[in-house]
Design a protein that fits this description.
The chain is mainly α. The protein contains 12 helices and no strands. Helix 2 runs antiparallel to helix 8.
Length: 292
């Protein structure tokens, strides 16, 4: 197994684990800051953080229309549309339901990779995806209670599909473009797209409790950690691993969420967690072992 593949798998896993904690943070803050304004604020913070990193590292910059077009599409589809749908869906439904529905992301990545990356799915791909999906369901179960759960589930499903498409588009970008440049430009696209909406709804920002430590702590985590750092790791991991099944690492989110619930909230871990963890580990092993 190539060293860069192992490092790529590690980057994808760390990014997914960071996002596992993000679901909990979004659920607690989205009642105080509406989804669109929340996404705009986290991207604004992420743009500043990524810009400072790029300035400090003096990365080489490349400019050509075919690759910039891919970056703009990734920013529109993934950074903007997918994240707005995800946070709206989490607001309307639940973090648990979101974790289950995101199992559609790896499958969608396999399907999108076929026409766009010319990577035809194999039988072992479907085996790995089946194991992973069963693992997530074993960990979090399926809870569909709530007034707006249907709309929330639809938003979460669309969020997973658009994120999968973005993840495949990222792999089409020329390797000369550093993951840092790609992440920064895609994040900037999201800020530009959302600014007119936020501007038209300016009174919403005035009603945010800006003096609240909870608000600032949540925004800093969502902006600097779960957006700037995690997006950078995800884009780097996609480039290094170069696998149809890269999306499987996305499913470490519910594992992290369950562990954080046990550690921070004293929530018990069931045998379903042990079974689900084993299935996800097995699916990840199949993805790495037989894809090269």
């Amino acid at each position: 197994m190539k060293t860069k593949s192992i490092f790529g798998a590690l980057c994808l896993s760390v990014a997914a684990c960071i996002w596992g904690g993000m679901f909990v943070v979004v659920k607690t803050i989205v009642g105080e800051i509406p989804p669109i304004q929340l996404v705009w604020l986290r991207y604004l913070i992420a743009t500043v953080v990524l810009g400072l990193i790029a300035w400090g590292q003096h990365i080489p910059w490349h400019w050509d229309w075919p690759n910039l077009r891919l970056i703009i599409l990734a920013g529109l589809i993934g950074d903007t549309l997918s994240i707005v749908l995800q946070e709206t869906g989490t607001w309307l439904a639940s973090a648990q339901l979101g974790a289950v529905i995101t199992t559609a992301t790896p499958t969608a990545m396999v399907l999108f990779s076929w026409p766009l990356l010319h990577r035809q799915p194999q039988r072992r791909d479907w085996l790995s995806l089946t194991l992973a999906t069963a693992g997530v369901i074993a960990i979090v179960g399926v809870q569909v209670t709530g007034r707006h759960v249907g709309l929330g589930a639809l938003c979460l499903l669309l969020a997973g599909l658009t994120w999968a498409l973005m993840s495949v588009l990222i792999q089409l970008i020329d390797a000369r473009y550093s993951p840092l440049q790609v992440t920064l430009l895609a994040t900037l696209v999201a800020v530009i797209c959302l600014t007119p909406i936020v501007w038209c709804q300016a009174p919403v920002l005035a009603h945010i409790a800006w003096t609240s430590p909870h608000v600032w702590g949540s925004l800093l985590y969502l902006g600097a950690v779960s957006t700037a750092l995690a997006f950078l790791l995800w884009n780097l991991g996609l480039r290094l691993l170069q696998s149809r099944l890269s999306g499987l690492f996305f499913l470490w989110q519910p594992v992290t969420g369950a562990l954080l619930g046990w550690w921070l909230l004293a929530e018990p871990l069931s045998w379903g967690f042990v079974l689900g963890l084993g299935l996800i580990l097995a699916s990840t092993w199949v993805a790495i072992r037989f894809d090269h």
